[in-house]
Write a structure and sequence with these properties.
The chain is of the alpha/beta class and 307 residues long. Helices cover 32% and strands 28% of the residues. The longest helix has 16 residues.
């Protein structure tokens, strides 16, 4: 078995004068969950559509499931687009049968019933799509992408608009698919979800790949650990602490960026002199912190352009 489900070599894409994706290499291991992160308009969806062969790259080669050619109608690949689309006047069972048969599944009922049950939707079979709530319809859209048991599943913002309970249901379904051998590639703006689920993460920014690797590799590569503290009274934290270069509020906590010369024992003593210390811990930058540090506009022009 090929160790890579997807491999891109020197792949780029341009639309008119806009370079949507600069030449990049990418490797998605078979049987992994691989996350695409990046701001809106960064090139994530364009890259996924080249993997799906909806777009042809201007340069480079795209290998999908061992092949460097083919078309977008690949029965081995499931796709959940960001723009949801179901036939609203069809019943749930009929629409799922339709999508399964498009993928070559002649007897899809067993798979349909399995997924409806796993997502808590087994009593929806005879409901029309236009009778479903947004969250319910999104579950059916997900089932339409997995009903044919794809080897590669591509999900574009699968968690957008879901409440916390349905988000967890869908997350568990994706993890089960990975455990059964399906390779999952998904884009998301939810950094916490990416940290929970992904074996590897790629960040695309302004059409360039700027991060690629496991969460441990990315965390080790990007930034030093920070000191996370909480005092019983937030207003008692000293404004100036020797060895602290920056203070960042994190909800009920505060993260302190330390200089190389910082002495944590002295910092703790300074905090104890100011008030009761309830929390004192060294933490690595989260994926959210790394995302914001890379993507945050640095000039007024960048802020306007990002709007």
């Amino acid at each position: 078995m090929n160790s890579l489900a997807v491999e891109l070599r020197g792949v780029s894409k341009k639309f008119g004068n806009h370079q949507a994706v600069h030449p990049m290499d990418l490797s998605v291991p078979t049987g992994s969950i691989y996350g695409f992160i990046g701001p809106n308009g960064s090139g994530k969806t364009t890259t996924m559509r080249m993997i799906l062969r909806i777009y042809k790259p201007d340069t480079g080669v795209v290998h999908v499931l061992g092949s460097d050619h083919g078309d977008c109608a690949d029965d081995r690949v499931g796709y959940l687009p960001e723009e949801r689309g179901l036939y609203r006047r069809m019943t749930v069972r009929r629409v799922l049968r339709y999508f399964a048969r498009i993928k070559g599944v002649k007897r899809p009922d067993e798979s349909i019933l399995r997924w409806l049950k796993e997502l808590g939707a087994d009593d929806w079979q005879n409901k029309r799509i236009d009778q479903l709530s947004k969250g319910m319809a999104q579950k059916i859209q997900f089932i339409s992408a997995v009903v044919a048991n794809p080897k590669l599943l591509i999900l574009d913002e699968p968690f957008t608009g879901l409440d916390p309970v349905n988000m967890e249901v869908l997350r568990d379904a994706v993890l089960r698919l990975r455990d059964e051998g399906t390779t999952v590639l998904f884009s998301t703006h939810d950094m916490a979800m990416a940290e929970q689920m992904c074996d590897r993460v790629c960040m695309i920014f302004k059409g360039n790949k700027v991060l690629d690797g496991s969460l441990e590799q990315i965390s080790a590569q990007y930034g030093e650990p920070r000191l996370r503290i909480r005092l019983s009274r937030a207003d008692s934290i000293p404004f100036l602490i020797p060895g602290v270069e920056e203070q960042m509020v994190r909800g009920r906590f505060m993260d302190l960026v330390l200089s190389k010369e910082a002495n944590r024992r002295e910092i703790l003593q300074s905090l104890m002199a100011a008030g009761e210390v309830e929390h004192f811990e060294m933490v690595k930058p989260s994926l959210h912190d790394i995302f914001v540090a890379i993507a945050k506009p640095t000039t007024i022009e960048d802020s306007i352009g990002a709007g």
